[in-house]
Structures are given as C-alpha cells and as structure tokens.
Amino acid sequence: MYTSPPSNPAVGNCIGRLEEMMADMMVMMQEIRASSSTIGPSQPTASSTGPAQPPTDP
C-alpha cells in the first residue's frame, strides 16, 4: 500500500502491523467464505460490530 517509508519509524512500524493485520483479515475472510460454502451460513462469524456470539438462550 505504502511505497515510500515515512520519516517516523514508529509510524512505519504501525503501518507494517496494519498491513499484516489486513493480510490476516483477508486470509480469514477467504477461509470463512470457503467454510461457509460447505457448512452453511448458520456458522457464527465475526462481523464489523464485533465477534458474533452463538445464542445460548433457547
């Protein structure tokens, strides 16, 4: 995403961590998409609002 490293090394380290997190998220999304196609949409997945919790009350 960023071609030129910023002057502040702390900012560069933060951007590097962000890029790693983004890559992990992309892999997780691909895995969720692949597993949901076989298991079904009933599997709880993490959403933008937060981690989805399975219903405990009947």
Automatic annotation (TrEMBL):
Top-level taxon of origin: Eukaryota
Record region (Disordered): 32-58
Composition bias, Polar residues: 33-51
Name of the protein this chain belongs to: Uncharacterized protein
Species: Sesamum latifolium
